[in-house]
Amino acid sequence: MYGNRGATLATPSACEPERAREKLALVIPTLCEAGNIGGLLDHVRSVLDPLEIPYEILVVDDDSRDGTGEVVSAIALEDPRVRLLVRKGERGLSGAVLYGWQRTDAAILGVMDADLQHPPELLPQLLSAILAGRDLVIGSRYTPGGGLGEWNPARKFISAAAVWVTWPIQRAGIRAKDPMSGFFLVRRHCLEQVMFQPTGFKLLLDVLVRGRIQSIEEVPFIFGQRYRGASKANFKVAWEYARLLARLYAGRFGFARRASI
To answer: Hey, which of 66, 160, 167, 185 has its CA 20 to 30 A from 202?
Structure first.
């Protein structure tokens, strides 16, 4: 449910089939990704199909005008596991991911970018760790073996600083080395009835701090280069991150009452 203060996930009905409860729902948020999304959907399906686990891919599009929706719709006609969800008059990665998660009954929830910077080949490792009992599994650039690719030194410094300031608000024992990652899987029951900030672009940090996470695992990967299209990083992204940090610090250290429902 959405409101002015945040967004929550509901609990699936107890009468739903057990097969649905094992399902993976992978959300791919899009904004003007017509040049990338078709190839990415083909790639993701080719990786997930051999795993023989029920899955669906939810493309949540923020009303792109470049043909993104048309590309996804054509694929969805051939494969019902691909679904297009269009948001009107809204922007922001976190809100798009929550919008998709609220519209699936899957027990395993995931997200990855549409710009080909997250390797689909990592999905089997992430899923394996979840099925082995982890609550949250992160595609990590900062765990040994991972990396930021060809980022320039200034961007690497800003990223490292953004991670460093999260350390005090992450919980001891389950701190993530890459709390800024946009590539992760999480168990649905760890998020149910928890209030999340639906604006901004750093949902994982919100999940780590507010979710009922008891165990995490980080799987290394090298952040790739964008294939087509433009990066969404801008001043608004930085501003929304600052707002999220302020709310999480306030909740963690008691400066303000944490929103709940």
So the answer is: 66
